[in-house]
Amino acid sequence: MRWSTYSRQPLLMGWPVALCLVVLLLLPGLLGRDPWRGDDAEQFGVIAALLSGGSWLTPMFQGEVWNQSPLYYWVNALIAAPFSYFLPLADAARLGNLFWVSLSVYALYEGARNLLSTDDAHVLPFLMLGAPGLMLSAHETQPDLAIMAGYAVFFWGVSRLAFERVLPGSPLVAFGLGITILAGGLPPGLPLIIALLGLFLIKPRLRLNTLIGLLLGLLIGLSWFIHAAAFAEPQTSQLADALLQAIWPIPVVRAWSDVPAHFLAFIKLLAWTTWPAWPVAIWTLWRRRMTFWHRENLIPLAVLLVALAIQVVTTATRPSKTLILLVPIVFLATASVTHLRRGAANLLDAFTLTLFTLTAGFVWLGWVAMHFGWPEPLAQTVTRLEPGFRASLSIIPPALAFLLTIGWFVLMRNIPRSPVRGIQHWFTGITLIWALVVALWLPWIDHGMSFTRMGQQLTRQLDAPGCIATYQVNEDARAALSYQLARDMPRTRIGASKACAWLLVETPGHQPELQLPRGWDSATKVWNGHRRGNRAERYTLYRRVSTPQP
Q: Which pLDDT does position 102 carry in this prediction?
């Protein structure tokens, strides 16, 4: 049914309003907090090492060569360097995420504008930034953002490939492939390589352009590996193993008997991390079923299917691993947002308004439970999930959250009805919920996700300078505590730990204390504790009076 009584203009939200919403979506939670456990703290440790005088050719982490491709760390460290003079280093290190997200959105927008109309391309930023998976990953130190940017530049290049004209299509394709390999190794680059080989076979008029893009992209992507292998310091420990893992970060392929279960888990993950783009992408394929073999259909679909297969058999099921799948999904979905049937568009809009209005109410109710103990069951759940949390009431965060909530209802009533209204409402709703959670729940989240309190406890015990050797301690804990304590924390298995007078041991909560490594038999226990809100991980600090002679 045609939208005869509806506005057909895709961009119904003014750019000033949209830009303010982008700032509200990306900045809250990016700044003003310590590194969180998991990838956020672990990846930050590599950036901190670069900025503290570590090798840029072979990035290090606590005295060992880091076994991941370096592009993300290089760029984020370069961006963090000037900002670290007036921002905490952990905040400055995350600012590089704004570059990767901006590059991804701009490159995909240009690609959509080349293959579609400008009006259709205007919808793409709302589709992409409204994806929950991108929203979560953009606020942590996450190398998968750089791989996503490589995919976006690749699609921009594919959209500019033209007969008898190498520029600018082939260089853009090469840059996209090179960024992908330099950020994630060869496995995430395989879907792009396979897509180029397929284009080489089925499009004879584009063979020269495709070949130039492929060869130049491989040269860019493999340049660091070749240079590091040739010129890295020979005394660097485990250099060969680290480089091999960086270029091929797949220790083992998942057993075929496990593939169906992981495939189902990945599909469930995609269902919410890429919403609402994936249903619209399916509608695009249906609308274009008679012109399926056109480049704008075949390349995104081929990249999506190959990348999904690789992710299912090689990677963990985590939201950040869906970012490279989000790129082709959004690219496909952009073509059909303005062509949605009235019933489908109205259903998406009604679902969006209902979901985010109820979710905003729940966020406010959770804040009330944290500070006033009502409703009692919810307050008990808050305490049970984060034991020991004590809320301190202040005026500014709830005042800002109240203004955001009012803004949500204002925008709800002022965006005209159209096929893209539901998409813009979704983007606005995601922004509202994230900003509300940061304003009202950030202290509670930080209580359970950071190592701040544990670091303060350790500081009171460390009455002598020097490094802290670690045994069975996870990478995220080593990075976060090293940053907070301003001490190196090498593993006991490397030579740098021999000069340490302190040893930190991590033990799973249900297991007895581990036997101390060689050279620490005479060490004395000085502290035992755990990260706030998590008793599943127990940490023990030991001190030895004298260190063994090397």
A: 94
Contact criterion met (CB below 8 Å) for 408 and 415: no
- Strand 468-471, strand 502-508: pairing: parallel
Give the CA diameter of the chain: 85
pTM value is 0.93
pLDDT in tens, 506-532: 988 677 777 888 888 888 899 988 776
Q: Whole-angstrom Cα distance, residue 478 to residue 167?
A: 47
Tell me if 415 sits within 8 A of 118, measured CB to CB.
Answer: no
Residue carrying structure tokens 């703290």? 41
Please give, one letter per residue, the 3-state secondary structure of 278-338. HHHHHHHHHHCHHHCCCHHHHHHHHHHHHHHHHHHHHCCCCHHHHHHHHHHHHHHHCCCHH
The Cα-based distances of 235 to 47, 53, 63, 229, 414 in angstroms read 22, 17, 12, 12, 65
Separation CA 41–CA 484 (nearest Å): 11
Q: What dihedral angle (degrees, nearest 10) is formed by the CA atoms of 258, 261, 264, 266?
A: -60
Are 124 and 75 in contact, with CB atoms under 8 Å apart?
no
Give the Cα separation of 316 and 320 in Å (integer): 10
**Structural contact between residues 452 and 40, judged by C-beta atoms closer than 8 angstroms:** no
First-last CA distance in the chain: 80
Contact present, 456 and 158 (Cβ < 8 Å): no
Residue 204's Cβ-count burial label (10 Å; 0-12, 13-18, 19+) is exposed
